[in-house]
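Recall the central idea of this unit: under ordinary conditions, the amino acid sequence of a chain determines the structure it adopts. In this exercise we apply that idea directly, starting from the sequence alone.
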Amino acid sequence: MSEQLSMLDLWEPKPEPVVYVPRPRRTVLTRAYGEAAYSMEIYEDSPDPVEIEIRGIPCLIVSAFGASTYTVQPPGSLFWSCTGFRSMATGGASVDEVIQLVEEHIDAPAAKSGLGGKLERWWPSYVTQWQQSLAYHGFADRSREHWGWCAREVGQAAIWADYDARQAEALARMISEGIDPNDVGPPSGFKGKWPRFSMDEHK
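Accordingly, the structure predicted from this sequence is:
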């Protein structure tokens, strides 16, 4: 007598769930961003970061999540990125390949997203945010509506107060970290008279 199969017997068994195992990582100390011991996390099997010079500019090459370059000099120093960081390749790349990519980026014209042969000074993100905020908002006529729809709930005065507090905090931080705000200057393309700042006033 043949055994009768049920519909349940015909169903394929559920596959075993895939267990995600994160790739092991390790922490290394570097001189990135001009710090004495800047900590960064890379894969366990990634090569150690390499510090070299490209066109006379010392930098750090990290090959963990692609190939990236970091400045190892303090804020205001020349680099091939105003942030002090630039990713040069999404996949693996040798040191020689990274050097070639950096040099191509430096030499490429601005029309092709290059630097046109001219390096730029790098600043921490809070400094460039202060710089851009001052350029875009700092010279506005406060007697007129400036912030638009975002001020409907809290009012223009509240937003200006928050803006002033953030700008003052950034100035104080710059001075405490040895960055002269007068050395930062206006962003590229700014037209107008850039103010001078008292170092003592914002300490």
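The two ends are 96 Å apart (CA to CA).
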